[in-house]
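Internal tracking record. Fields below are filled automatically when a chain is submitted to the structure queue. Please do not edit lines marked as system-generated. If the sequence contains nonstandard residues, flag them in the REMARKS field before resubmitting.
Queue: standard
Priority: normal
Entity type: single polypeptide chain
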Amino acid sequence: MNIFFILLILSSPFLYAKPIIVGSKKFTESVILAEVARLSLKYDHLEAEHRPEFGGTTILWNALKSGDIDLYPEYTGTIVEEILRKKVDSYEEIRELLALEGIGMSPRLGFNNTYALGMKRDRARELGITKISDLTKFPKLIFGLSNEFQQRKDGWPGLRQRYELPHRNIRGLDHDVAYRAMDQGDIEVVDLYSTDAEIPYYELVVLEDELDYFPRYDAIYLYRLPLKDKI
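SYSTEM-GENERATED OUTPUT FOLLOWS
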């Protein structure tokens, strides 16, 4: 038995009649975590398939509830803000609310991949920007924000209100495209995930969220509680 939670929730003397379907979102970390899950299942002699880049939060959540997939990697902040859409006070409360939907949640995987804003290190140093509130001094900065970030409850609308950001020059870009646009100087501020490998690769600096606007995004796995139906 290895250390991954999957072997705890799926440990059984039976073999599954059909493969366990693992989904992932359209970004690298999600794909990697889903592949870790698939390999962990394989290690325990359970047949599994990975459907990479299956969709965004809504698509994966609906697929999980309908049984089109059996598990996928998710983040606690996304669960609270985008799935449950209600205030919760603890990890255990999240688990209990998910269970009412027929969904289980793994223990936390050990890292927090929250949203953040970033800039090229040299540009931020030039303007003296180290934290999000510093952006208010430069209303003409060009933002390149992912479409999902612009629409999410825990994304741009709430962030702009919390920090009273005056910026209106906002370009909607895919997450990967935004990094390249930043590198070419087409945009100056980008939304990012705090564990992105692109941060050191593109020499970006993460701006301090001194008002603690962004919630914790502890990585976990969501899975269907009735997985035994596949036996």
